[in-house]
Amino acid sequence: MPLYNILCVAAHYPEIAPIRELLKTTTQIINNGGGLIKNVDYWGTQTLPNKMIRHQQIYDKGDYIHMSFLASPPLLKNVNNLLKLDPRVIRWQTTKEKM
Questions:
Q1: Which CATH number is associated with domain 3-90?
Q2: From the first residue on, what is the mean pLDDT of each consecutive set of 10 residues in the chain (99 residues)?
Q3: Which positions ≥6 away from 74 have C-beta within 8 Å?
Q4: Which stretches are annotated as coiled coil (predicted)?
Q5: pTM of this structure
Q6: Which among 13, 12, 3, 16 is positioned nearest to 67, based on CA atoms?
Q7: DSSP assignment, residue 72?
Q8: How many Cα atoms sit within 13 Å of 34 on the Cβ side?
């Protein structure tokens, strides 16, 4: 299985519960699909370089999360579909690590 990295910018909320739920949902999909999570880093809340529009809302702050995991390509597609549909996610980028 290839090693993937996801950098996710989530909508900022006053409480941390929505971010925990997003991480819980994502990690469950990876673990249930036979993947292995290597590392999860929460980089904190940052002002976005530009205002971003997602799900008909405008955001100027976001919570940055980095995750490294092993997964099959079909599992990666499921994770990307989850992030695309989740209203807590503003932007994300997936990269494949070279071995």
A1: 3.30.70.60
A2: 95 93 95 96 95 93 96 95 95 90
A3: 33
A4: none
A5: 0.90
A6: 3
A7: -
A8: 8
